[in-house]
Design goal:
The chain is α/β, with parallel strands linked by helices. It has 12 helices and 10 strands. Strands 1-2-3-4-5-8-9-10 form an 8-stranded parallel beta barrel, surrounded by 8 helices. Strands 6-7 form a two-stranded antiparallel ribbon. A hairpin with a 3-residue loop joins β6 and β7. α2 packs parallel to α3, α2 packs antiparallel against α11 and α8 packs parallel to α9. The protein is globular and about 50 Å long. The mean pLDDT is 94.
Length: 301
């Protein structure tokens, strides 16, 4: 039997760029996205179709989609509501990432809706998506909330059940929004939700942050629990602007290196990825957290 392959979903253009206050030039964003694809990143979140007033960095999403539509990578955008999904589809995307928070406090702060309203919005999107559209649902604060602290496991279980009832074939991502998760809890939560009868038709992803230095360890714990899709950001760029204290995403190069060392190839060219990560790290106003970028390149390959 062939060994399972980890799939990296590069989120620096979305979760990373949104953490930078001053808008970056559209061409610079497109250039980085194109170079990430050239390095072999199989999936890329281009950004978010959100209100430019809420996240000015995402005001040029239509132009970014237009400038990257020829790439071989699978391209997606995050949306918080039906209007965002409609705008993403109008721009030409066929992969939609819907986000809401398990924690009521964070959902109100992040998307200005109650959890119940977000679930209603998910139902509206599922009914509106054209046939063949790939849907992923990000469950933010699946482990910890910056306002309420640790999220009870049963709150996550209930949220997952409700999502699975609405979107029984969607990819579901448990998101460590604050980076506060630990490998033992990551494994426990994935093991629990994957065993639910309601999720028999769903697939799984993990979105981690490295705030407490657990990003790679948490991803590998998810891998051991059968998860095969992992969100990371080149140079570890990022941090949720609506989660105080949440710093960068797990660095793509760090997790790729870990998988490579374990004999699990991601298909990503690490030296080329490191070159892109250097460019990402040089962006003005960004906060990065990569480890591998600081290792001598001859030892990192």
């Amino acid at each position: 039997m062939a060994a399972a392959t980890p799939i990296i979903c590069e989120v620096a253009p979305r979760d990373g760029f949104q953490s930078i206050a001053n808008p970056l030039p559209t061409e610079a964003k497109i250039g980085i996205i194109r170079d990430l694809a050239a390095a072999g990143c199989p999936r890329i979140e281009l950004g978010s179709f959100v209100s430019p007033k809420a996240v000015p960095q995402m005001a040029d999403m239509a132009e970014i989609v237009e400038g990257t539509r020829d790439l071989p990578a699978e391209l997606a955008a995050l949306v918080p509501n039906l209007r965002g999904a409609e705008n993403a589809l109008k721009a030409g995307l066929r992969q939609i990432v819907y986000v809401f928070s398990v924690s009521q406090a964070h959902n109100l702060n992040n998307v200005r809706q109650t959890v119940a309203q977000s679930l209603t919005g998910l139902d509206e999107i599922v009914k509106a998506l054209p046939k063949g559209t790939f849907l992923r649902v990000d469950l933010a604060t699946a482990f910890d909330c910056p306002f309420e602290g640790g999220v009870p496991l049963m709150d996550l279980v209930e949220a997952v059940k409700q999502v699975a009832a609405i979107a029984p074939n969607a990819e579901l991502a448990l998101c460590d929004t604050t980076g506060r998760a630990n490998p033992f809890d990551v494994a426990r939560r994935f093991d629990t939700v994957q065993m639910l009868p309601e999720t028999a038709g769903n697939t799984w992803a993990f979105h981690g942050h490295d705030t407490f230095g657990q990003g790679v360890a948490n991803a590998l714990a998810a891998w051991q629990s059968g998860v095969r899709v992992f969100d990371t950001a080149a140079a570890g760029l990022g941090g949720c602007p609506f989660a105080p204290g949440a710093t960068g995403n797990t660095a793509t190069e760090d997790l790729v290196f870990a998988f490579n060392e374990g004999g699990r190839s991601t298909g990503i060219d690490l030296p080329r990825l490191l070159d892109v990560a250097d460019r990402v790290a040089a962006l003005p106003g960004g906060v990065t957290g990569s480890h591998l970028r600081h290792v001598p390149r001859g030892r990192a390959a």
